[in-house]
Amino acid sequence: MIAKTRLDNFLKLGFSLILFFVVSIVQGQQDAQFTQYMYNGMFYNPAFAGKDGGYRFSALHRSQWLNYTTSSGQGGAPVTQLITAEGRLDSKSIGYGLSIVNDQIGPSGNLEVNLKGSYHKKINRATLSFGGYLGIFSSSLDYGEIVVVNPEPGLPQSGKEGQIALDFGAGILYDRGNYYLGLSSKHLGQPSFDFGDGAYANQLENHSYFLFGYRIRPIGQLRIEPSLLIKSVSFNNFSYDVSVMATHQNKINGGIAYRGEESVSLILGYSLLRDNSLKLGYAFDLIVGGLEAKSPTSHELMLRYLLPTSSREIERVIQRTPRFRF
User: Fold this and answer.
1) Positive or negative CA dihedral for 271, 272, 276, 281?
2) Which of 8, 183, 278, 326 has minimal Cβ neighbours within 10 Å of its Cβ?
3) What is the rounded CA–CA span in Å between residue 144 and residue 86?
4) Which one, of 220, 268, 217, lies nearest residue 243 by Cα?
5) Are 197 and 233 in contact (CB under 8 A)?
6) Which DSSP string do the residues of 161-175 spell out, in sequence order?
7) Where are the domains of the chain?
8) Residue (of 119, 122, 128, 126) closest to 96 by Cα position
9) Ordered DSSP codes for 277-290
10) Which of 197, 205, 131 is nearest to 163 (CA)?
11) 2-307: which CATH number, 2.40.160.40, 3.40.50.720, 3.60.10.10, 3.20.20.70?
12) What is the pLDDT of residue 40?
């Protein structure tokens, strides 16, 4: 039994290292990116919806490349907000969730609103989850903020155009308790946005995600969780995030992260209220790659709240009457 456990650990470690080193890094992602990805699994994979029970809510604000300005003096740094809510029908092993993403990058803006559903199946000590989502993806473009070197005659000089398209995706998750593996794919329909002119069509590419995490309890109430997120755009462009987080008594957490060829990050968190149900998180990114086109820092604030499900056992008292017993 001990030999088998060691073999399992060796295989898991080897698998994660192979994924870490063989991935080629090319930036081309259209989805929003988050440093605290390990706490927002449902954004990447709908199979996470309702997996841990209770009602969970989160709000996140990210200011990427803070104070970045273009060569023309205009702003253009990405600013992103993420709101999620999820719950679970325990009697049916069904999870559900809602995610809203607002992503603004210079003259372009994207808004996602997705409804997510999942099914969780117990297999011995593990849980196998399947999930999917259906929603809308809205893209807008402000022509007044575009700086064009050689503008075409038909390109508008002002005004704002927007389009809405149906969006859907799916994912699968295997959680063994001490580790988990997730694979998902977003924007399966790959809608195209031409903003009223087919010559400027911009397609939303399919995005795929592989998420791996390991949970270690070396001593007492200390928990250490290394994790890896691999992101792919149409299976051509790849990037990755890797992190190690430590949590003490479910109260204080901190860790470091690295985004391939882009940044190193410090992540801090603290839990409030008597039951630690309200959690605050902050991430600081220091840009180490491509500084000629970026500002050196990014900042991310997160608020999470867990509303646990409560159950009460009511003891029935037998009451007797001359004719009835109930």
Assistant:
1) negative
2) 326
3) 38
4) 268
5) no
6) EEEEEEEEEEEEEEE
7) 2-307
8) 119
9) -EEEEEEEEEE-S-
10) 197
11) 2.40.160.40
12) 96
- Compute the distance between CA of residue 140 and CA of residue 196 in angstroms, rounded to an integer: 11
Please enumerate in sequence order all residues whose Cβ is within 8 A of that of 298, keeping only pairs 6 or more positions apart, or say none. Answer: 35, 62, 63, 64, 65, 66, 263, 283, 284, 285, 287
Instruction: Please tell me the distance from the alpha carbon of residue 47 to that of residue 51, in angstroms, as a whole number.
Output: 8
Q: Which of 271, 265, 175 minimizes the C-alpha distance to 215?
A: 175
- Note whether 75 and 302 are within 8 A (CB): no
Per-residue pLDDT reduced to its tens digit, 76-85: 789 999 999 9
User: In angstroms, rounded to a whole number, what is the distance separating the alpha carbons of residues 304 and 270?
Assistant: 11
Q: What's the CA gap between 211 and 227, in Å, rounded?
A: 7
User: Residue 287: what pLDDT?
Assistant: 92
The tokens describing 176, both together, are 């063994």
pTM above 0.90, yes or no: no
